[in-house]
Recover the amino acids of this structure.
């Protein structure tokens, strides 16, 4: 098992791993491996866009210095669980508006105390801003047309002045009709107008088609 440039992420061959903070338990049917008395979980890039981003060439400092995280669109918790492995002592606030998806998030949080699920709409950060406070990393993975607006408003409400952001842009949730490159370009422009610096753009194929990761900072 080989450490990567991203703290807490390991690699063996083509597979990524995180150290399991909940030993003996799986989240998404992943393989568990014990090496030198340490249990690792496979991090599947076809189930987690963040793992896909790392394999597609994320910079070494993609996360920056992290003491708290705001995750928008937690769904059933696959990527969330690996973030909890990376920073087991740091609070990870998870926003999810679907009551159906929220139930497994709650179950996951019972086993991982640093996960703090909030049933809320990411379009309304004013409803959870007081609970979340200022975070170092903002991660967004939501399927709505106004993804850039949602991201920018959450940056303004919750991201620290030196914080980093990762927007997983779902192109076809914005429009079905126009080229992906044009949507990515327009999204970058909207983020810049909101006062953000776009540090990089990474296409996530073959792990997630017509998805682009935008890496930003204030």
């Amino acid at each position: 098992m080989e450490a990567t440039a991203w703290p807490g992420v390991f690699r063996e061959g083509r597979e990524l791993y995180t150290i399991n903070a909940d030993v003996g338990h799986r989240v998404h049917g992943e393989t568990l491996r014990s090496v030198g008395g340490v249990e690792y979980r496979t991090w599947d890039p076809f189930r987690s866009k963040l793992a896909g981003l790392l394999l597609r060439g994320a910079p070494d400092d993609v996360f920056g210095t992290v003491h708290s995280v705001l995750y928008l669109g937690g769904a059933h918790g696959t990527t969330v669980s690996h973030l909890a492995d990376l920073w087991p002592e740091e609070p990870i606030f998870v926003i999810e508006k679907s009551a159906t998806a929220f139930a497994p998030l709650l179950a996951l949080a019972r086993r991982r105390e640093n996960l703090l699920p909030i049933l809320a709409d990411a379009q309304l950060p004013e409803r959870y801003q007081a609970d979340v406070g200022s975070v170092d990393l903002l991660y967004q993975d939501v399927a709505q047309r106004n993804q850039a607006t949602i991201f920018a408003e959450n940056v303004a409400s919750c991201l620290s002045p030196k914080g980093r952001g990762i927007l997983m842009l779902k192109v076809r949730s914005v429009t079905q009709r126009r080229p992906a490159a044009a949507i990515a370009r327009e999204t970058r422009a909207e983020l810049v107008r909101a006062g953000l610096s776009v540090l990089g753009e990474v296409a996530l194929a073959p792990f997630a088609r017509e998805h682009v990761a935008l890496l930003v900072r204030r």
User: Anything to note?
Assistant: The mean pLDDT is 92. The CA atoms of residues 5 and 17 lie 13 Å apart. The chain is about 30% helix and 30% strand. Residues 180-193 form the longest helix (14 residues).
